[in-house]
Amino acid sequence: MNKLGLLLTLALAALPIAAAAAPAPAPAQSVRVKIFTPQGNIVVALDPKHAPKTVANFLHYVDTKFYNGGTFFRAVPRFVIQGGNKAREAPSDSQIPLEDPKVTGVRNVDGAIAMARTSDPNSASSEFFIDDGAQKFLDGPPGQPGYAAFGRVVSGMDVVRKIARLPVNGDQLVIPVEILKIERVR
Fold first, then answer.
1. How many whole angstroms separate alpha carbon 28 and alpha carbon 49?
2. pTM
3. Rounded to whole angstroms, how far apart are CA atoms 135 and 110?
4. What is the rounded distance in angstroms from the CA atom of residue 151 to the CA atom of residue 41?
5. Least enclosed by CB within 10 Å: which of 24, 35, 38, 133?
6. DSSP state for residue 118 in the 8-state scheme
7. Lateral strand order in the sheet of 80-84
8. What is the gyration radius of the CA atoms in the chain, in angstroms?
9. What pLDDT digit, counting tens, does each position of 120-168 carry?
């Protein structure tokens, strides 16, 4: 094989690696938020075009500073990190109707942000999670509801993975990671 052929072969072989390392593209017409933690920051592009109710709900909590001082309290490596502000949650918090991933097209891929809920598909309020790896089953099997994904991490997946691998008791972080604040960014 000549030098040119060898260089082309090596360049083509490296393409999947380079593509995997690139940050996820932001959804068109996205709104970005930055999650500040002592472990580092996470930037998420929200998708109001495909998940408008879920994004509006999340931004309501961001804009009212509800998450400031909250925590990431649950972590399962290669699954999710879950956060919210348990100290400010109330039984009267409004619950939002599920925007199912099978309908919106916003899937639980690596780095997706989605609403946490109980077994009632319309029970999501303020708690959210970030997928640490693709979680296709969270999109729901045919005929069953999934978990409402509404955006994707565009910067800071290293922080998500670091949090997901901190010491846990069961699936609860031994020392929860503080959410210093979440705010909109340009």
1. 8
2. 0.84
3. 7
4. 16
5. 38
6. -
7. 168-169, 172-179, 70-76, 80-84, 128-131, 112-115, 149-155, 40-46, 31-37, 181-185
8. 18
9. 999 999 999 999 999 999 999 999 999 999 999 999 999 999 999 999 9
Spatial CA neighbour of 115 closest among 151, 153, 71: 151
CA distance 23 to 164: 19
| Tokens linked to 96 | 């939002």
Place of tokens 């109001």: 48
Q: Tell me how long the chain is.
A: 186
Top CATH class of 29-185 equals: mainly beta
Q: Burial level of 50, CB count in 10 A (0-12/13-18/19+)?
A: buried
pLDDT digits (tens, 9 = 90+) for 10-62: 333 333 333 333 455 555 578 999 999 999 999 999 999 999 999 999 999 99
Largest distance between two CA atoms of the chain:
71
**Which amino acid, one-letter code, is at 31?**
V
